[in-house]
Amino acid sequence: MVKEVWFNLPVNDLAKSREFFRAIGFKINPRFENSEDMVSVFVGENNINIMLFPKKTFQSFIQSEITDSKQSNEILISFDAESIAEVDELALKVESAGGKLYSKPQLSQGWLYGFGFLDLDDHRWNVLYMDYSKMK
């Protein structure tokens, strides 16, 4: 029944957001690569779509107010990494591309290593490496 999943996010500047996600290693969906109305980035091997829309367009979809992501959040988008080194590398890419770490890379519970970041529009993301062999 379900062929694809899209997470839709409002952004202030499509071009800057496209470059941010490209800089941190996400693939740009070629179906929307040249669109001035939306950007689609793929996350993971299964190509989960993150759709980015100008705030005005996004608001027309939800027909309510957009949450001020500087004050509160309704979603935390999490994805896994293949190693601790990949987590650390991605943290550096995020900062270099203009994102902000709200939680620096660190070990938690002896088996979970990760960090959290804010994209250019203050959406919250979580990157995790999970070593299940150390999980209690």
- Assign an overall shape: globular
**Main sheet properties:** 4 strands, mixed
Domain module count: 2
| Count of DSSP H/I helices | 3
Q: State the low-pLDDT regions, or none.
A: none
Helix/strand/pairing class, anyone? Answer: alpha/beta
* Full CATH superfamily name of the largest domain: 2,3-Dihydroxybiphenyl 1,2-Dioxygenase, domain 1
Q: Rg, please?
A: 16 Å
- The CATH class of the largest domain is Alpha Beta
Average pLDDT taken over every residue:
93
Q: Can you summarize this structure?
A:
The chain is of the alpha/beta class and 136 residues long. Helices cover 23% and strands 35% of the residues. The strands form two sheets. It has a four-stranded mixed sheet with strand order 1-4-3-2.
Write a structural description:
This protein has three helices and eight strands. With 136 residues, it is α/β, with parallel strands linked by helices. It has two domains: 1-64, 2,3-Dihydroxybiphenyl 1,2-Dioxygenase, domain 1 (Roll); 73-136, 2,3-Dihydroxybiphenyl 1,2-Dioxygenase, domain 1, CATH 3.10.180.10. The strands form two sheets. Strands 1-4-3-2 form a four-stranded mixed β-sheet. The radius of gyration is 16 Å and the shape is globular.
Q: Which key features would you list for this structure?
A:
2,3-Dihydroxybiphenyl 1,2-Dioxygenase, domain 1; single chain; four-stranded mixed beta sheet
